[in-house]
Write a structure and sequence with these properties.
383 residues; Rossmann fold; 2 domains; seven-stranded parallel sheet
Amino acid sequence: MRLAFLSIGRHIHTERWIRWFAERGHECHLLTVQPGPVPGVTVHDISSAVGPKPWRYLLSLRKVRRLLAELGPDLLNTHFLTGYGYWGHFSRFQPNVLTVWGDDVYVTPFESRLKLRLAGAALASCAALTGDSADILDRAGQLGADPERSYRVLWGVDFARFRPHDAAAWRRERGFGDDEILFFSPRSYTQPYYNIDTVIAAAVRVQEAEPRARFLFSGYEGDPEPFRRMADLAGIAGRSTLLGRLPHDEFATALAASDVFISVPSVDATAVSLLEAMATGGAVIVSSLPSSCEWVRDGESGLVVPPRDAAALAAAMLRFAAEPQRRRAYGRAALAVARRHAGFDTNMEAVDALFRHCLDPASPPPRAVSLAQLRRQAEGCPR
């Protein structure tokens, strides 16, 4: 197949997704305003520096239309509803498979009436929709997507990299003792809805009751300095470490080295870091979002707390601190769920099947991950 992708450049999700197709011999073109080299992929810069933002957007749309006409791809896969999704819609190219990411569905469409209308138009016009949770697909349906053409596709986990393994040496290198209990929060520093301030507030409560507790933060984007100051003011500076983005391999090691993974946002799709943490067999604490509860059952494969509830989060952290056997049991259950559902190749094979179905209706779609099938499954939470 000759495939064109409209997506965020220099982003690991984009690169892993497109390279999967390139490595299987497909001709792949990435159209982006953040160009950078991607092995096996031809990258096209659609950015414009002329005039105010609306004018630049229109000039980029002209580039998108021209490139699609010149390249003649069999299929367009547009990533991210707002921005790139608009270009995909106004390009009028079909089949256009739209892939939504997270706040492009949960947050941005509601910032203005114009964005809401544009989001609805892009969702209604796509040949098919993929998203990484049944919840985000349901939300997209409320905005205008066709539920009958919606499919849950995870970003997927590299099980060769994210697996249970001995990472005690990494702990020691980072200054964490073997007998200490390491809580790891690796969410972005840029968005308030990731609730890092809540994790810090919970850590204050935990350190008062559990002297072995230590806290590791690693934001994959943004500046940790404001949160470092917050931790200092909260009195946990001596027990906390705040890092920037960790390389992917080191991130896998950090997950394996940690005792408890924490992800408690107020808004989110399925967090890739959550699935990666589950794949390392560690204990997890998540907020009670539908996208998290698709993967984590409270009291079975992890602990679930309300968003922005520092007291509930601290209680869950202390429960895991006091019960290492529970940590290990829940970690094994989480690992089993990840192994069943979160493999990168398995999910990309579903995308491949969807692309082929869009090009030839006689080719079967990936029905097992269709929203209709997911709705038929009991309660939507895998065991």
